[in-house]
Amino acid sequence: MAIPKIFLRRGKEESLQRRHPWIFSGAIYSVESDRELVEGEIVDLFSSKGEFLARGHYQVGSIAVRVLSFEQIEIDQSWWREKIESAYNVRQTLHLTDNECTTCYRLVHGEGDGLPGLVVDLYGSVAVVQCHSVGMYHSRGEITEAIVAVFGDKITAVYDKSAQTVPFKANLNAVDGYLYGSAERDNVVLENGHKFLVNWEEGQKTGFFIDQRFNRELVGRYAAGRTVLNTFCYTGGFSVYALAGGAKEVCSIDASEKAVRLADANVALNFGDDAPHTSIACDAVEYLKDIGDKYDMIILDPPAFAKHHKVLGNAMQGYKRLNARALSQIKSGGILFTFSCSQAVSKELFRTTVFTAAAIAGRKVRILHQLTQPTDHPINIYHPEGEYLKGLVLYVE
């Protein structure tokens, strides 16, 4: 079956020539195919002069094509294995593939690993696959085969967690489940020697927020002797590191009672039942209205306030209000860790918003660190949008 050809409008080939992996629908001039395009199929992109530019997955929406290759090569099983092997080699370089202290990491990070629309996280011997495009969802079999081929007997199961991430309008009726092997529902993984319960079948994302590994470690370095508030705590990752770093007391807050129970379980798993830790199931923004100067370390790690640019204005108001409340009440000499995981929010915009919040709070603030995602979440240098996680560590007088 012939691969459909998509011709771009004049001048719209420039982004592909700079190796950016997306083509937007407005850049398309015409389609040459003997049938109607089907979402998720392989298409070839050509300039207005008929020059081959790239090959990728077609999709319905503003991003019309996600590029798989800038060469006119077959996307077959050997191609998938080569891509997974390349991603594995990077993690091997990062000393993650055989690390006794850290048994969970990201194997594939979308565009950062040349596989746009695909995330694969490793939890011990289980790979959890999450597809964000129809093309990747239809390729689950090839992806699974490639993972098993690369890892061999180090992999006992591959779990598909795509039901909530594939495009809703595609009507795929996706159901989560094992693509290969099976595993227990609740598992313990290690991160820098700390133990965490992970349930990839029912938990958020793929089961754990792997992208805060480096930043959790930094919290541990600053926590000694401090009274710590961990808002939007989810699994209690920051709480565990703060306690390990010698925090005087830690309070974990989350709107979800289930998340709070999981945070409690992870604290108990590492420190027993007598750790100086309390947890409250409540709205973090409301809780921050009146905390006085009880805390001298506060962690703000909210879910993405802006999943796309249409709601960016409201999202920035949310970040400003949240940070202003924390900055106005943190003890003098306190440390604030504040994050945004919204891809639509740039580093500059986030920093400006936190600056505005500091001005509203009327506090003297120094930036100690500017944070990002860990090395197993690499950023394609031609795709700066991949730098989705940004954070600041602030010293507040």
Describe this structure in words.
The chain is an alpha/beta fold. It folds into three domains: 65 residues, PUA domain (Archaeosine Trna-guanine Transglycosylase, Chain: A, domain 4, Roll), CATH 2.30.130.10; 113 residues, RNA methyltransferase domain (HRMD) like (Transcription Regulator spoIIAA), CATH 3.30.750; 188 residues, Rossmann fold (3-Layer(aba) Sandwich), CATH 3.40.50. It has a seven-stranded mixed sheet, with helices on both faces. Strand 17, helix 9 and strand 18 form a beta-alpha-beta unit. The radius of gyration is 22 Å and the shape is globular. The N and C termini lie far apart (67 Å).
Topology of this protein?
Layout: E1 5-8, H1 14-17, E2 22-24, E3 28-32, E4 42-46, E5 52-58, E6 63-69, H2 77-93, E7 104-109, E8 118-123, E9 126-131, H3 134-138, H4 140-151, E10 157-160, E11 177-181, E12 187-191, E13 194-198, H5 213-222, E14 227-231, H6 237-244, E15 249-254, H7 257-271, E16 277-281, H8 284-287, E17 297-300, H9 312-329, E18 334-340, H10 347-361, E19 365-371, E20 390-396
Parallel strand pairs: 1-4, 9-10, 14-15, 14-17, 15-16, 17-18
Antiparallel strand pairs: 1-3, 2-6, 4-5, 5-6, 7-8, 8-9, 10-11, 12-13, 18-20, 19-20
Offer a quick outline of the entry.
This protein is an alpha/beta fold and 397 residues long.
Defining key terms:
397 residues; Transcription Regulator spoIIAA; six-stranded mixed beta sheet; Rossmann fold; Archaeosine Trna-guanine Transglycosylase, Chain: A, domain 4; 27% strand; globular
